[in-house]
Structure formats: structure tokens, C-alpha cells
Amino acid sequence: MAFDIAAHLGAMVREVxxxxxxxxxxxxxxxxxxxxxxxxxxxxxxxxPERLKRWFAPVTGDLELGGRYHVEGNASGTVTACEPxxxxxxxxxxxxxxxWVNLTLTPDGAGTRLELEHIxxxxxxxxxxxxxxxGVGWDLSFLGLAAHLERPGADVRAExxxxxxxxxxxxxxxRAASDDWGRAAIAAGEDREHALKAAEATRAFYSGEAPxxx
Length: 214
What we know:
By secondary structure, the protein is α+β, with helices and mostly antiparallel strands. The chain has a single domain (5-206), classed as 2-Layer Sandwich (Alpha-D-Glucose-1,6-Bisphosphate, Chain A, domain 4). It is 41% helix and 31% strand. It is built from 8 helices and 8 strands, in the order αββααββββββααααα. It has helices at 5-11, 39-47, 49-55, 124-129, 132-150, 156-159, 168-187, 192-206, and strands at 13-21, 24-35, 59-61, 68-71, 76-83, 87-94, 97-108, 111-121. The chain has an 8-stranded antiparallel sheet with strand order 1-2-8-7-6-5-4-3. A hairpin with a 2-residue loop joins strand 6 (87-94) and strand 7 (97-108). The longest helix is centred in the C-terminal third of the chain and has 20 residues, at 168-187. The protein is globular. The model has no long low-confidence stretch (mean pLDDT 94).
């Protein structure tokens, strides 16, 4: 098996926080887990294009303070803060909207804890899909990163394409992650029925059953 789904689900921490961004109501989707590697190695995996393309996506540009970057087929943005091996903040510009991503690396025993915070202002898209809209995508990235750190020379991104993404294994991961993000929304004060409906909409999208429409 290319991916250890059970280990991933057991290692992840998922949280939703209510806040304001630029004077507007916003939500923070927080994903975290501990990886069995050093801060230096984890930072390298997160910032070096040759490594990023093997587990995340081809990334061009400059992942340094003030630099512009582009994720192939996805977002672009600007790095607004950067402390190597410790933290990075960047804008996430996609589909005409801007959200914000903060990465924090913290030594944790013999490993390193990675926390990703994705902040977005509340929108109809959030109301329909909830935190899982971005959370499940980050779950898949955290899974790919774990596989990359175990097998640095392998193209684990390619292993996650070409059929795996519609396999029963992948769908079980998406279902579990969507449910967990729904529970995180409820813990943050979201109406239970609404949160569960949004989680199901997210599951259906990532399982290829419905478009991520507005």
C-alpha cells in the first residue's frame, strides 16, 4: 500500500477557529501533525521545488520573504513572512479570492510538529462546504508529505493520481477527513445539522460525485 491511511488519520489534529480578518468575520482551518524528522529536513521538503513536486505539486517562483510563487493548477501568492525552519506566512490567491496560509514548525520530541493555518473570510462557499473545502485538500497534502518523508526519492504525488484518487481507499480517507472537519466545525460553534450537511457536500466533491460549485 502506497499510503498509510490509518496512521495519517490517527496523527492529524483538526481545528476550526472563529476570528476576524481585515475587519470581516473569518474562519481559520487548522491542520497539524508530528513528522519523524528534523525542522531542517521538514523545511526543506516544504520549500524546495525538487521535493515539492514529488509530494505536493510543481511550484515555481520564490518561497522567500517578499517572493511570488505559483502552484501548478492551483493558487499563487506572496510570501509575507519567513523565518527558515520555523515559520512562513503567505497569501493564497485562487479564483479571484485571497485567503491566507500560515505554516509553523515546532520541535516535538524526536520529530517536528507542522501546523498549517488557512484563514478565509466567511462566504457562500464556506456556508455550503464548511472547513472541509480546504481542510480535506490539506489532509491529502499532509498524507503525501508523510509518504515523501518515508520515501524521499519516490514520486508519491504520481502514486496519488492515475486511479488512486477514486479508489475505495482514497474515498474512505475523504469520508473520514470530511467527517472530522464537520466535527471540528461543530466544536467551533457551527450548527450541527448545517455542519454535517456541509461535510457531506465536501465528501461528495472530493469523491468525484459532485462539483465544488457555489
